[in-house]
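Key result, reporting period 2: structure in, sequence out.
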């Protein structure tokens, strides 16, 4: 039986990937602090899976890896690393914590794989488009409701200069480069995904990440939203099912793509601005949606669109869920789970920070 290890496995992406490999009848080990909103709900959901006998939960922190954790890594065929400090805002207020989790935590995982006395699992790291920084040298066109690239119809390629803006960008950028270099120097089977905005089922967007999901949850629950910036920011959004397929497809080609870095997002055909989504939600869900505005965050990109051609060339992946279909699916899921979401967000007034 194949085994996968998923750090941050009780989070949004991790739980969806865990369910995917349970469906394949793999043994799935998830490692998580269970500290984020919704993690307990995700664990309960996974516990109800028909193959839950193959699920192992370890509660712990990647900064303090245990011997039991190391043993599971050494028994795994693949390690998917999602455990992270995910917010630019938190990185600014607590850069030490951000560094310890994102940079040092990833480094410690790489060392566990490098020094493994058992298997040396394929290592997949969820990086971020924030490693490209503000990209101030790229020409931006401003229209009534959005920003767009002046000269990059295909989006940002992996060859774009790195510019680690904000502690979050620095910690992820350092981890990103360590993961790549451990393939070059030590021969590990590593792959980096520089992810754009991922959205989908079981995403409990809070103050500082998960803006698409939070917009939809807020509209349906009747909660206020604060937008940082002018709302014309554009991102290429990617539905969770497509991201899971990207990881699975990349693993099947690990021998030929190890050491590579890929931009993974919705691409040019799945772009949307904050104002676009607000308009859709006011029209279809909640005409009285309350919106407030605040200043821009440090390093926020007016527009980010992934060029995903390299992923298609190397392992045949491209999105199949268009953004309208994905948003409709997420709306349906939120409505079906409204009571759970109301319980999770009791007393909270989440604020949007675009990531």
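The corresponding designed sequence is given below.
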């Amino acid at each position: 039986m194949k085994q996968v290890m998923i750090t941050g496995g009780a989070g949004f992406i991790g739980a969806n990937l865990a369910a995917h490999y349970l469906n394949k009848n793999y043994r799935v080990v998830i490692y998580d602090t269970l500290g984020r909103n919704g993690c307990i709900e995700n664990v309960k959901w996974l516990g109800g899976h028909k193959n839950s006998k193959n699920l192992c939960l370890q509660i712990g922190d990647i900064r303090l890896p245990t011997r039991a954790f190391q043993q599971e890594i050494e028994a795994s065929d693949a390690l998917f690393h999602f455990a992270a400090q995910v917010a630019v805002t938190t990185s600014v207020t607590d850069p030490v914590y951000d560094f310890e989790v994102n940079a040092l935590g990833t480094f410690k995982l790489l060392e566990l794989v490098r020094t493994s006395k058992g298997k040396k699992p394929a290592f997949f790291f969820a990086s971020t488009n924030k490693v490209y920084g503000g990209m101030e040298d790229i020409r931006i066109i401003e229209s009534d409701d959005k920003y767009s690239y002046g000269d990059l119809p295909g989006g940002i390629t992996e060859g774009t200069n790195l510019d680690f803006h904000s502690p979050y960008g620095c910690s992820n950028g350092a981890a990103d480069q360590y993961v790549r270099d451990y393939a070059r120097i030590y021969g590990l089977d590593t792959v980096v995904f520089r992810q754009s905005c991922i959205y989908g089922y079981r995403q409990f967007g809070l103050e500082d990440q998960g803006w698409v999901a939070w917009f939809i949850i807020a509209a349906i629950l009747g909660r206020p939203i604060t937008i940082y910036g002018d709302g014309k920011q554009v991102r290429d959004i990617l539905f969770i099912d497509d991201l899971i397929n990207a990881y699975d497809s990349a693993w099947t080609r690990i021998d030929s793509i190890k050491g590579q870095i890929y931009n993974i997002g919705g691409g040019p055909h799945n772009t949307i601005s904050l104002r676009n989504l607000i308009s859709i939600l006011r029209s279809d869900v909640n005409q009285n949606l309350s919106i407030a505005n605040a200043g821009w965050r440090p390093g926020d990109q007016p527009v980010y669109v992934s060029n995903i051609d390299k992923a298609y060339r190397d392992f045949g992946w491209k999105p199949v869920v268009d953004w309208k279909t994905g948003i409709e699916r997420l709306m349906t899921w939120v409505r079906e789970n409204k009571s759970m979401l109301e319980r999770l967000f009791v007393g909270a007034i989440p604020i949007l920070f675009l990531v």
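The two ends are 37 Å apart (CA to CA). The first strand starts at residue 3 and ends at 7. This case is discussed further under Risks and Mitigation.
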